[in-house]
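Async update (no meeting this week)

Hi team, since we skipped the sync, here's where things stand on the single-chain job. The sequence we agreed to prioritize is pasted below, unchanged from the tracker. I ran it this morning and attached the output directly underneath so nobody has to dig for it. Comments welcome in thread, and please keep replies under the output.
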Amino acid sequence: MPKITNSWRLLAAAAGISMLAACADQSPRPAVAAAPPAVAAAPQPAGGWYQVWFDTSKSDLNANGQMIVDSVANAVRRDNAVRVTIIGKTDRVGSEAANMALSEKRAERVRDALIATGMVPADRIETRWMGEGKQGVPTANDVAEQRDRVVDITVQ
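Output:
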């Protein structure tokens, strides 16, 4: 019987592996177990605090304000149990009476915009206004007072 050298053994082993690989490609694939059904996450209650900013002596919603209103509307839409509280505020520019009227107007603008989305019923919104009497940043410089020209929106 002829003697098999190491190179012949390697060649035979390589051929065997090639044959096994070719057979493996033609054999039916084993069935893969189906992934377990995804468990739906429990709906999270909507909630949060949002702010809509205004220019001095203005009550018009800008594009950023409308984006905030849309975010609030989406949060409220997901949970029928939540309520929205809107609080209008002003800085100290202008008279106290004018600022009270302006804070009311700002709060009403945000309220009307929320209702206009069609996702927030009016009976789930409480609207209040504070004028300048209880501002969050009692400072005289204009940069800080910008923080007082705001409508706070609380979803709870």
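Quick observations from my side:
The chain has four helices and four strands.
Residues 31-36, 39-43 have pLDDT under 50 and may be disordered.
Reply here if anything looks off.
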